[in-house]
Amino acid sequence: MSVEESKLNHRVKRQSIKENFQYIKKGKKEAMAEWANNFNLQIFEQIQEIYKKKTKLNLIIVPEVLCKIYDELKEKGIQLIAFLAQGGQGMVFEAKKKDEIIIVKCIQIVNLEKTEEEVQILEKLKGIPNTCQLIDSFNSNKKNFNFQIFKKYSCDLKNIMECAFEKKKSFLLNQIIYISLQISQAIANLPNMFHSDLKPSNIFYDDVSKSFDLSDFGATKEFKDGKSFTNNVGLFLYQQIISDNLYPQLKFKALDLKYRAPEMQEENLNLTKKYDIFSLGLVILEMTLGRFIDNLESNQIRKGNLDQYLSYDQAHVELNQILKLMLKVEQTERIAPQELVKKLNELKEIVEIKFINSVLNVINDQRLQSMIQDFKQYFQEYSFEFKENKTKLNLQEIGVQVQLNIKQFEDCISQKNGWLILNLNESQMPNLVIKIQIKK
Ligand SMILES: Nc1ncnc2c1ncn2[C@@H]1O[C@H](COP(=O)(O)OP(=O)(O)O)[C@@H](O)[C@H]1O
Ligand SMILES: [Mg+2]
Description:
Helices cover 50% and strands 13% of the residues. The chain is built from 14 helices and 13 strands. The radius of gyration is 30 Å and the shape is elongated. Magnesium ion (MG) binds next to loops.
């Protein structure tokens, strides 16, 4: 090759690289715009991926639809900021409205009538102490979603129990009474309905007011005649249990089998608030044991074999007596909500008197008074330890990760400076990342 030839060759090469770079620049810009457009989609896809890795479950609302929900809520001044959890019917998000943090529950409307019934139940709970209060509710433009707005709680009771159990720290007796009293009062005050899915993850804790509220009324049913409950709705609940057993692979669980009452197994369903009392009994039992019971154990308890599972701790002797009344197999023998509240209040007084007697001779009057005050305070306000929600995923943090990928892509281009060969035309630009070939 002559010098001239070689010079020409070099010029052509340089020219080609220059052109290629313009292509890259232009393509990069377009690709970046595409990235920005798909930014939310990528965030939700990322959430889907992480959630699937953690739980082996899919999100029940697909990322494409979540993007639409995100935009629709944004127009209403509600900015989704974190994914918290998902249940049988919908997904729970933390959101910001003006400067206030709220919770948005996005529920897929399968049966409009049923969803409306659910919202009506929440409306009826307004003003009932120790129940999670609905702030607002509206349907999506296309009427395929129902959005329910609640205040943000610190965590659920399951979280607090896990935290305590992991540290091998059992609950103090007055802590157990403190929680039990609030939830049994909530059951007693439910207007003409029972919850039917009472379990630790449906009891929420507010670290500011230090109160526990009964929540998630998605499976709640009203009584038809004000007292008992023998109609087809009972059968509907029964069928749900059966279908859970038959199709566990569907992973669609409206009701937790472990905490159900024995009457759910009967075909002749006669459900009352005592259904919830049984479930609460199992939750309290777990708190006294300092561990979660399993399905086999709860099956045994439903069969009436409770004694072997009760806590041996001397401190729980009186509470165990109440538990025996809560966990009676026969509804007619089981303690009623009002009576339970009374018994727990009596126990609270007994515990107070025991405490006073135990310190009476040891400490002087003034110190005694202040100690008693402190002790009584424990029944009014109790701080519980908890961990951050395990499934919580912050949209902004995930957004940063997605942005990092773009950055990596940019770095990749600049590092390989000049040695890029493009084999794409304009129409392929959005797929730039894959189509670029790097020649070393
Ligand atoms: N208002 C809230 N504040 C804090 N966490 C919440 C709130 N609502 C729901 N969560 C979290 O999301 C989980 C699922 O919400 P829940 O209302 O029980 O719906 P479902 O079980 O029907 O999906 C709860 O167990 C709780 O951990
Ligand atoms: Mg729930």
